[in-house]
Design a protein that fits this description.
By secondary structure, the protein is an alpha+beta fold. The protein contains two helices and 18 strands. A hairpin with a 2-residue loop joins strand 5 and strand 6.
Length: about 250
C-alpha cells in the first residue's frame, strides 16, 4: 500500500508539473491572439461610383497623410473652406480600423491634381450618400451623368486647350455657385471640383477646374478653356438639379 501511495503521489506531482508546463505553453498563445486582435486591420469600402458613394464635410482642419498614420508623409493641409468660401467636403473611398482608430481614404483637393490620402475619421462630419457619377471625356468633348448605373444626362462640352489642358484623374464635385451677373463668362451657374490646375484657370481666383456655363457657346464642342469645363448655358441649367455636390467625377 505504501509503495502504491508513493507511486500515486509521484504520479500526481508529475501530472501537476505537466499541467503547469502546458499552461505556461498555452499562455503565450492566448497573449499572441489578444495582441493579434488589437493589431487587426478592419477595412470597409465606402463608395461605388454610379451606385452609392459617400462624402462628408470637414469639421476639423487637418493634415492629409500618404497612409493611415500620423507618422506617414504629409501630403498637404486641409482647411475648413474652399477657395470659393464654401464649406470644405471630402469624397470618401474606404476606411480602415488600425489600433482602435478609424482612418478614411479620401480624394484630395490639392496639387498635384488627383491625389488620394488619409485623414482621421474624427475630423469628418456625418457621411452623406449620392447615387450619381459624372464622366468628362476631353478627347470626345462630352459630359455624361449616371445615376444608379444609368445615363440620365449627356451634353457636349469645351475643355482645356493643349497649352492649358484639363487634368485627368479621379475627382468630385466640391461646391456649387450661382448668382453670376447676366453675360458672365461662367453662365448662370457653376460647379467647383476637387481638381486643381498648375496654371491659372477660368475660375475666380484661378487654379480650380470648374464646370460652368459660357457666354461663348459657339466654341463648344472644342478645347477653348484654360482647363475648366464649359457647358452651354441651356444645358447646365438642365444639369443643375441632377448633379449633387459630393458626386464622384472622372476626367479622362
Amino acid at each position: 500500500m505504501r509503495g502504491h501511495l508513493t507511486s500515486s503521489r509521484r504520479g500526481l506531482r508529475v501530472a501537476a508539473v505537466c499541467a503547469v508546463a502546458l499552461s505556461a505553453l498555452a499562455l503565450p498563445a492566448v497573449g499572441q491572439a489578444a495582441r493579434a486582435k488589437r493589431h487587426e486591420v478592419k477595412r470597409q469600402v465606402l463608395s461605388h461610383p454610379g451606385y452609392a458613394s459617400t462624402w462628408a464635410y470637414l469639421e476639423t482642419a487637418t493634415d492629409a497623410y500618404a497612409s493611415p498614420s500620423r507618422r506617414a508623409h504629409v501630403l498637404g493641409y486641409l482647411g475648413l473652406t474652399t477657395q470659393d468660401g464654401t464649406s470644405e467636403l471630402l469624397f470618401e473611398q474606404q476606411r480602415v480600423l488600425i489600433h482602435g482608430s478609424w482612418w478614411v481614404q479620401v480624394r484630395l483637393p490639392l496639387r498635384p491634381a488627383g491625389q488620394i490620402g488619409w485623414v482621421p475619421q474624427r475630423v469628418l462630419g456625418a457621411p452623406q450618400t449620392v447615387h450619381t457619377y459624372l464622366v468628362v471625356s476631353t478627347e470626345n468633348t462630352t459630359l455624361t451623368l449616371y445615376r444608379n448605373g444609368k445615363v440620365i444626362f449627356f451634353t457636349r462640352v469645351g475643355t482645356g486647350a493643349p497649352s492649358t489642358p484639363t487634368p485627368h484623374g479621379q475627382f468630385y464635385i466640391r461646391d456649387r455657385l450661382d448668382g453670376f451677373s447676366a453675360g458672365s463668362i461662367y453662365g448662370p451657374l457653376a460647379f467647383g471640383t476637387s481638381a486643381l490646375s498648375n496654371v491659372e484657370t477660368d475660375w475666380p481666383g484661378g487654379g480650380v477646374i470648374g464646370i460652368h456655363g459660357t457666354n461663348e457657346p459657339s466654341l463648344i464642342p472644342g478645347h477653348p478653356s484654360h482647363g475648366c469645363i464649359r457647358v452651354p448655358n441651356w444645358e447646365i441649367v438642365k444639369l443643375a438639379p441632377l448633379l449633387p455636390i459630393g458626386t464622384p467625377l472622372t476626367i479622362e
